[in-house]
């Protein structure tokens, strides 16, 4: 039941974000579509994590610790406390490292596992590195953002397809 609710919410947010992006003119630098698509992407990530085999592995506790550190880093950043950037960078890299170790420790890997590994590596290692240290133009930031969206939505699409085919999702 929760998967159906999450899926419907993700689809509605994605549709709202796409309609707002391509059909409605905006005067703001950051339209509401960015927020809707980001929220839909986050919920898709949560849905994939909720139904992942990672939850049953010994690495799940480490992943929880990494996400807790990430939340603390975000709170520090919001409150403008010192050390926020360091906590964010360390926690983001930690998520990527823990998932990489989990991925290589799995005995059986399928296409979805490889796609999830690429998504996790890009979102939690490459994207922060590129945005913070390498990229200095708006065009390059847009390209990195599009690559991230394509990876997340491609992975989510394959996840939904396999879940429906195996009758394990809904």
Automatic annotation (TrEMBL):
Keywords: Membrane, Transmembrane, Transmembrane helix
Record field: transmembrane: 62-81, 87-105, 142-161
Pfam hit, one: GldL_N
InterPro entries found in the cross-reference section: GldL-like_N
Ranges of residues in domain Gliding motility protein GldL-like N-terminal: 70-113
Protein name, as recorded: Gliding motility protein GldL-like N-terminal domain-containing protein
Species of the source: Pseudochryseolinea flava
Taxonomy of the source species: Bacteria, Pseudomonadati, Bacteroidota, Cytophagia, Cytophagales
């Amino acid at each position: 039941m929760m998967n159906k609710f999450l899926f419907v919410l993700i689809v509605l947010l994605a549709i709202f974000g796409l309609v707002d992006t391509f059909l409605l003119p905006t005067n703001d630098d950051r339209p509401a579509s960015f927020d809707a698509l980001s929220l839909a992407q986050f919920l898709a990530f949560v849905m994939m994590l909720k139904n992942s085999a990672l939850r049953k592995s010994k690495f799940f506790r480490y992943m929880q610790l990494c996400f807790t550190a990430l939340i603390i880093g975000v709170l520090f950043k919001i409150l403008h406390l010192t050390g926020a950037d360091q906590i964010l960078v360390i926690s983001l890299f930690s998520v990527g490292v823990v998932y990489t170790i989990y991925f290589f420790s799995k005995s059986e890997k399928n296409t979805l596992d490889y796609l999830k590994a690429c998504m996790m590596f890009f979102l939690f290692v490459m994207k922060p590195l590129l945005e913070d240290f390498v990229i200095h133009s708006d065009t390059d930031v847009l390209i990195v953002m599009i690559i991230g969206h394509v990876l997340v939505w491609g992975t989510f699409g394959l996840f939904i397809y396999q879940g429906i085919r195996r009758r394990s999702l809904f």
